[in-house]
Structure formats: structure tokens, C-alpha cells
């Protein structure tokens, strides 16, 4: 989504009512953020909406992008936010062989999540299709990508082919390098 650098953008302030709705939506989508939401989005702060081409919206606070969204898709956290609060987001892990493809912006395929060194949640903690996940790498602590599951984790284990995670944002992409002015 952000393979090329972000060039021009229209920036506007978000009304406080829309900010409250966004805050509620974040807590609904990521319930583990509840104890940290006042640190991430303080009540008296001014959130900015940055509109990009292709109906992509960035939500920024104090010159830092926190979340982004494509049209009416789910909100996807910026990797820097995932690095600050790693325990608040669902996580999967790729093996060493998939890391270079992830960092090049490729869609994450099922074999990268099912081979040795990779990790998926157990059946009782299954993640559903459409869940926003942080993708970690074997041997690394921080997430290297944030994306949306294209199939449930149990389907990934059983089918083991096709795209598993649609790339939203990865280390070194245009959003990672984007500076809010």
C-alpha cells in the first residue's frame, strides 16, 4: 500500500465528536489498548486527518501517524505504535526465509507462517479472517509488518497455500519514512 514515498497530502483537524467515535472504534477493534488509550489518544488532544490518494486516511497526533485506514476498512496501527505497545495487538510470526519478502512489500503467503520458526496462535486462540495482525520475524523482537488476515489462522494451517496476510505497512515503506509537517 505504501511502497512508494508519500508525497502530497491534505491535512485537517478532526472534530472532538469524531475523535471520540474513533477512540471508541479503536477500543472495540483492539480491546487490549484500553489501559493505554489515554497515553495514545489523550482526551484534550487535537487529532489530525491526513488524506492521501486512493482513499487512504492517516490519523496523526503531535506530528506522528498513529493509525491509517483505507476507505472503510479496519483501522491499522502504525508500526511505531505496535513497537510501543506490542502486547496490545494480535501477533503472528514468519520464518527467516520470509523476512526479506515481507520487507520488500510482498503479501505474506501461508507457507511463511506454517514452516519451522514461524508461529500461529493455537486453536482456542484462533484469529478470524479480517483481523489486523502484527507480523513478527523469527529471532526478532519487534514486528516487521502490520496487515490484515485473508483467512483464519486455522485455515492457514490446514490449507497452507495462497495469501495469508495482506500487507498494510512494513518497515522501510513510504509510511515508515513519512514525516508529518
Radius of gyration: 16 Å
**Average pLDDT level:** 93
Determine the N-to-C terminus distance. 21 Å
The helix count comes to 7
Strand order of the largest sheet: 1-2-3-4-5
| Structural class by SSE content | alpha+beta
Q: DSSP strand (E) fraction? A: 25-35%
Helix content: 25-40%
What's the number of extended β-strand segments? 10
Main sheet attributes: strand count, strand direction, barrel closure: 5 strands, antiparallel
Order of helices and strands: EHHEEEEHEHEHEEHEH
- Which word captures the global form? globular
Low-pLDDT residue intervals, each spanning 5 or more residues: none
Helix-strand blueprint:
Blueprint: E1 10-13, H1 16-29, H2 37-40, E2 48-52, E3 56-61, E4 64-70, E5 76-77, H3 79-84, E6 91-94, H4 96-102, E7 108-109, H5 111-114, E8 132-137, E9 143-149, H6 153-159, E10 163-170, H7 174-177
Parallel strand pairs: 6-8
Antiparallel strand pairs: 1-2, 2-3, 3-4, 4-5, 7-10, 8-9, 9-10
Q: TL;DR?
A:
Helix content is 25%, strand content 28%. It is of the alpha+beta class.
Model description:
The protein has 181 residues and is an alpha+beta fold. Helices cover 25% and strands 28% of the residues. The protein has seven helices and ten strands. A hairpin with a 3-residue loop joins strand 2 and strand 3. The radius of gyration is 16 Å and the shape is globular.
Amino acid at each position: 500500500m505504501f511502497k512508494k514515498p508519500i508525497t502530497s497530502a491534505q491535512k485537517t483537524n478532526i472534530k472532538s465528536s469524531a475523535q471520540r467515535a474513533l477512540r471508541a472504534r479503536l477500543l472495540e477493534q483492539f480491546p487490549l489498548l484500553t489501559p493505554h488509550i489515554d497515553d495514545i489518544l489523550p482526551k484534550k488532544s487535537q487529532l489530525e486527518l491526513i488524506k492521501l490518494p486512493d482513499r487512504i486516511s492517516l490519523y496523526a497526533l503531535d506530528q506522528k501517524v498513529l493509525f491509517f485506514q483505507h476507505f472503510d476498512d479496519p483501522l491499522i496501527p502504525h508500526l511505531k505504535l505496535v513497537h510501543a505497545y506490542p502486547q496490545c495487538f494480535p501477533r503472528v510470526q514468519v520464518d527467516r526465509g520470509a523476512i526479506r519478502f515481507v520487507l520488500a512489500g510482498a503479501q505474506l503467503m501461508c507457507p511463511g507462517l506454517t514452516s519451522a520458526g514461524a508461529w500461529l496462535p493455537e486453536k482456542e486462540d484462533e484469529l478470524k479472517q479480517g483481523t489486523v495482525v502484527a507480523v513478527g520475524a523469527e529471532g526478532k523482537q519487534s514486528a516487521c509488518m502490520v496487515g490484515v488476515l485473508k483467512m483464519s489462522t486455522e485455515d492457514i494451517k490446514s490449507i497452507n497455500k495462497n495469501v495469508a496476510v495482506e500487507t498494510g505497512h512494513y518497515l522501510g515503506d513510504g509510511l515508515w519514512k513519512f514525516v508529518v509537517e
